[in-house]
Write a structure and sequence with these properties.
Layout: H1 2-15, H2 32-46, H3 52-60, H4 66-80, H5 89-97, H6 99-120
Length: 122
């Protein structure tokens, strides 16, 4: 009985443990692995009981800036339209690690900027 009480007390300590949140991810390909590792560490220690959808939404909130905004917007639209569904947060993180998506997003962002520049007469 005492062992169970000690284990329960220890579980409370883990839940109260401080865990660093990942830095914002802006789509820089060389920073993908670091971002994914930071997300995994935080999710496992703080959001393990959350649904896959909630965990994916939390990760998306840390994706901001540069080409990442385009990618995030596309993913959010696909999720809302139920065009994609992730079975696990690991599946989502694997799609995030695919560097090709960042290069494609960079090209898309550059293409969008070129259209804006053309419209402005540059």
């Amino acid at each position: 009985m005492q062992i169970q009480a000690l284990l329960a007390a220890g579980a409370g300590e883990v839940a109260n443990m401080e865990v660093a949140k990942p830095q914002l991810f802006d789509g820089t390909p060389s920073k993908v692995a670091e971002f994914v590792t930071g997300c995994k560490l935080y999710l496992r220690n703080k959001l393990a009981e959350a649904t896959v959808e909630a965990q994916v939404q939390w990760i998306l909130s840390y994706i901001q800036g540069r080409s990442a905004d385009v990618w995030k917007e596309n993913v959010m639209e696909e999720l809302e339209a139920e065009e994609i569904e992730y079975e696990s947060v690991e599946e989502f993180l694997m799609s995030l690690k695919e560097e090709r998506q960042w290069r494609n997003s960079c090209r898309s962002l550059r293409g969008q900027q070129e259209v804006v520049d053309m419209r402005k007469g540059h």
